[in-house]
Amino acid sequence: MQFIDVANEGVKSLSPYQAGKPIEELERELGIQNIVKLASNENPFGFPQSAIEAIQAQLLHLTRYPDANGFELKAVIAEKFGVQPEQITLGNGSNDLLELFAHTFASEKDEIIYSQYAFIVYPLVTKAINAVAREIPAKNWGHDLDGFLQAINDKTKLIFIANPNNPTGNFLSQQEIEQFLAQVPAHIIVVLDEAYTEFTRPEERIDSFALAKKYPNLIISRSLSKAYGLAGLRIGYAVSNPEIADLLNRVRQPFNCNVLALSAAVAVLKDYAFVEKVAENNRTEMQRYEQFCQQHQLEYIPSKGNFITIDFKRPAQPIYEQLLREGVIVRPIAGYGMPNHLRVSIGLPEENDKFFTALLNLLNKG
Ligand SMILES: *Cc1c(COP(=O)(O)O)cnc(C)c1O
Is 11 a member of any domain? Predict the structure, then answer.
């Protein structure tokens, strides 16, 4: 007997999540220092000072369980975004929330819709509960929302939309999202995953919390791992209709968010200067990446996130491996069905310089 034979039917089709290679691992393998990691869309500015101070203040309080209701953090989110605390669900990273949405609303054999090339956690949570994945072929690497509408049937329970999408960086406008929501039956839950929203320009950003008021079946999911720099602490939040939030909070593990994450999140959400600096660097450096690609005839997918996905028109794995030897970690995305692409997270200017130099070296070598 093998234990996979007795696993939940959906689990049998799962493969392990492929994370970006940790810096320490490459250091051990190659015995080199000064490695640049541009692989997991993390924040190149490191841990914000505001969060360090908040965490230090909590270090002697770790004996107690965290506040299961996250009162203080919910109050800060509510005030900052003009929503009610009853609309908020906190997650151990937004991945935790994505899983929670599936657990709360879908059962075995129900259908969950998402796009080809969309965030890999959607198929993961769908298969884990043995629901049926309806993966809609992408249009120009992005979501084909008309295709989504055509796929809706009696079994549809949940729809995932990543905006901007990872790993392609595609972005849907407010108008496209709203036209879509207006046509989705009111009992089907739509998740708008906005892990990268802080990197979009304020004038193009979607007023998603207003949409959540208008469409009670809409859940907005946000992360503090990217623009806010707290990836290692694991914290995210969802905003929805209070009735949905109540259901999510019943299924949620009561202490899913730890003391340090809760207090650091409170601090960084008030730290407007930090996020502004992060977004500004991203805008400037994204332009450098686009210019670099144009100069060297590299095709890329225009991105609204903190990463850019480059098409090498041939298997990208050898390029990834050569970059590793130069001390630069990027992200192969063959697991997404994109074997010719590499995803590169936008770093600090000097980190990006190192990537440009390393890539040019190896492309020139042929
Ligand atoms: C990174 C990412 C997330 C969430 O990350 P957490 O660290 O779990 O908050 C969610 N959605 C997308 C599309 C992402 O790229």
Answer: no
Ligand 1 center from residue 202 Cα (angstroms):
20
Does residue 193's CB lie within 6 angstroms of at least one atom of ligand 1? yes
**Which among 255, 270, 285 is the end of a domain?**
270
When pLDDT is cut at 50, 70 and 90, the band that residue 30 belongs to is: confident
User: Does 149 score more than 90 pLDDT?
Assistant: yes
User: Is 206 found in the same domain as 255?
Assistant: yes
User: In this structure, is residue 341 part of a structural domain?
Assistant: yes
Neighbouring residues of 196: CB distance < 8 A, sequence distance ≥ 6: 41, 164, 166, 226, 227, 304, 305, 306
Nearest Cα to 239, choosing from 114, 94, 123, 92? Answer: 94
Q: Are 214 and 288 part of one and the same domain?
A: no
Residues 289, 198, single domain; the answer is no
Ligand 1 mean position, distance from CA 95 (Å): 6
Residue type, 265: A
